[in-house]
């Protein structure tokens, strides 16, 4: 009976995700380099937030091969370290929202702390801090539209261009370039968003 309820909850969570969200996640995971894995969770481990809460995510990277892929953990001080995009799906959304379109790529040059990935997990607290109370999107250069999201069940996955094969070839590549590898989190994070207290 417990197994039945677990399967029912999992099915409900999957149904809450739109087809474009599921397709985008599946396509991204299928393009991941073999043996390299990214997982997403919230920094504090919570899965329930109020609409106005600031949510911060933690990313965990591993690689089955050592001395092949590198990652920059310099907390946004290079283009690669600032390249993480959080893809969000939830009630009332006709298409998933990308955080990089909400918060355009911004980084403070120039700092880099790059090292090789291995089977030992490398964790990065990645931001921006995201609040679902009001998300500002810039559909084009002329218009600013505001989208207010509703309480409900949300799904989030991450994509980043922070992983590259080997070391950057030049100083420019170290600070100002993003990788041609897009790494997608293998998991989808499910969040319950409740209304703010009156």
What can you see in these coordinates?
The chain is of the alpha+beta class and 198 residues long. The protein has one domain. It is 19% helix and 34% strand. The protein contains 4 helices and 14 strands. Strands 2, 5, 6, 11, 13 and 14 form a 6-stranded mixed sheet that branches. The N terminus is likely disordered.
Brief descriptors of the model:
single chain; 198 residues; alpha+beta; six-stranded mixed beta sheet; globular; disordered N terminus
- Overall geometric form: globular
Q: Domains counted in the coordinates: how many?
A: 1
Residues in helices, as a percent range: 10-25%
β-sheet strand percentage? 25-35%
Mean pLDDT: 81
Q: Summarize the helix and strand pattern as letters.
A: HHEEEEEEHEEEEEEHEE
Q: What is the β-strand count?
A: 14
The computed structural class is alpha+beta
Main pleated sheet = 6 strands, mixed
Q: Distance between termini? A: 38 Å
The number of helices is 4
Using only C-alpha atoms, the radius of gyration works out to: 18 Å
Poorly predicted residue ranges:
1-15, 136-145
């Amino acid at each position: 009976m417990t197994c039945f309820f677990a399967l029912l909850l999992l099915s409900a969570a999957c149904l809450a995700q739109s087809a474009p969200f599921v397709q985008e996640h599946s396509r991204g995971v299928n393009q991941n380099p073999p043996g390299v894995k990214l997982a997403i969770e919230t920094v504090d481990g919570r899965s329930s937030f109020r609409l106005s809460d600031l949510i911060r995510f933690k990313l965990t990277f591993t690689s089955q091969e050592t001395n092949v892929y590198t990652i920059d953990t310099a907390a946004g001080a290079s283009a690669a370290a600032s390249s993480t995009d959080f893809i969000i799906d939830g009630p009332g959304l006709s298409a998933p929202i990308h955080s990089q379109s909400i918060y355009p790529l911004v980084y403070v040059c120039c700092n880099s702390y790059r090292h090789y990935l291995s089977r030992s997990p490398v964790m990065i607290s990645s931001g921006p801090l995201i609040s679902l109370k009001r998300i500002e999107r810039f559909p084009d250069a002329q218009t600013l539209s505001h989208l207010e999201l509703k309480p409900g069940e949300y799904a989030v996955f991450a994509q980043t261009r922070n992983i590259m094969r080997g070391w950057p070839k030049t100083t420019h590549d170290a600070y100002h370039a993003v990788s041609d590898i897009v790494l997608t989190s293998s998991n989808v994070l499910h969040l319950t968003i409740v209304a703010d207290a009156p």
